Batch of 2 targets.
Target 1
Amino acid sequence: MKIFLDTADPDEIRSAAEANLIDGVTTNPSLLAKVATHREPREILLEICDQVDGPVSAEVVAEDCEEMVEEGRRLSEIHPHIVVKVPLSQDGLRACRTLRNNRIRVNVTLCFSAAQAVLAAKAGATYISPFIGRIDDAGHEGMDVLSEIRRVYDTYHYETEILAASLRHPKHVREAMLIGADCATLPPDVLHKLMKHPLTDSGLRAFLDDWERAGRQL
Ligand code: E4P
């Protein structure tokens, strides 16, 4: 399973990439707006792409198909790692098809149902991003939607990769892994929590204490 970092913060991305923890990055307009207060978004995206050896999703902000395609083309010219993110609207799906016909990779975002995911696959999406946490927030089961997408994609042999998004805690990540999502995008704090286990900490402490008591050198 590929692990992406869900942030536009170049420092977080650098640190995770240097530790070889991530296979790519996803951004969205909200995440980019947080860090692009004094810098050009394009410059930040370029910095991110230079740090990561994998796909970096960058989202269009237009709502109309032709403008989305134009923005998508411009985003894709920033760096070969860029994957253009379009929303799951009728215009977004049309833009997806046009961009894919131009060999530009597309992540269809803001997916909340298996039926939407099928439409994205039929539009040639490279990735589909179901928003698990936001489905939970709305009182439904995000993981049920993820399972349905996995089942339907397997049944019809769609090649679109399932990118579990809006993951809020390690349990979400574990469930997405078990369901068979192809990728999961994690906010930095969830990635840090994923690494931690109390038994790892106490086990390490015990090993080091025993070693010190024995007074040995390696
Ligand atoms: C995914 O690509 C989105 O950037 C992200 O996962 C949305 O997460 P949120 O619902 O926590 O904002």
Target 2
Amino acid sequence: MTQENIQDIKSLTLAQLKEQMQELGEKAFRAKQLYEWMHVKLARSYGEMSNLPKSLKEKCTETFTYTVLEPVKVQESRIDGTKKFLFRLADGNLVESVWMRYKHGNSVCISSQVGCKMGCRFCASTLDGWERNLLPSEMLDQIYAITRLTGERVSNVVVMGTGEPMDNYDNLLIFLRILTDENGLNISQRNITVSTCGIVPKMRKLAEEKLQITLALSLHATTDEKRRKLMPIANQYSLDELMEACAYYFEKTGRRITFEYSLVGGVNDTKEDASELIELAKPLCCHINLIPVNPIKERDYVQSDKTAILAFKNKLEKNGINVTIRREMGRDIDGACGQLRRSHIKKQS
Ligand code: SAH
């Protein structure tokens, strides 16, 4: 067997796994058993799969790779119990994921890539560049590992950690299929949010999948000129194109769009910014999430002051826009995207 033929077993859908079992001369029900061990019982190895014959486990070991994440570090917030996990992948790369406890259930924020190539100015995930895409299994593994480590069920998943999910589209879709599969963890599509910096063709493609997931757009600015200063992707797609893609997503899925707007002191938090944001948001069925920017030491962006944040929110509300200020979870534990991984890499080098 050549290296290319070795398949990543946890990235196979149940239908694909059934086909694989057939090819290996195994009965179809073995696929269901294996799938359950991987995606419901969250087994870390074939060794744990106590009701499977040894011969099958040997065949699987020869034929497939089996991904597992090694926890390297866990930080727990003393403020709100948020936990931040740093995991090592099989090839030694590191990813981080965050576990948050809300009234409506536990939420996990996962990474979709090792590093990021999008270059957003305020974000720590992109400072060391992009390494590689995560496999569907490696995205699932973050949720599985956290479920095992906390001993608590995860009910919400947000793809808002390191990386741009739309830049890893095919793997993202497989991940979503397996995560929401009734034979797997069976997480409701409505409890999943995918956040993008705004890769228009992929947003439109996602709309056509007609999933019930929430699409979050990282907007952060209200004119093309301002957005280009914060987010290089804005050089490729204009706000007009972005807003059209958002409307299209709503038209196809009936799901309200979320706009994420990180407030940066003196950069995008003025009255004019609020007025422009109202104009952008009004025609769309959307919800705005205001995030006080989490300053990173590599850049000199500062948070807007509390009164500016409240004034911004009030202005939107007065104009009938649905808006919340994102609670800042885990501020005491390198809460912002990519900070934990980066601080770990720095210490090692
Ligand atoms: N690439 C995707 C998902 C990862 S970033 C995206 O761009 O949406 C998740 C969210 O956190 C994005 O809205 C991003 O702009 C925001 N973000 C990143 N660094 C931040 C910081 N230092 N302070 C506040 N928000 C930040």
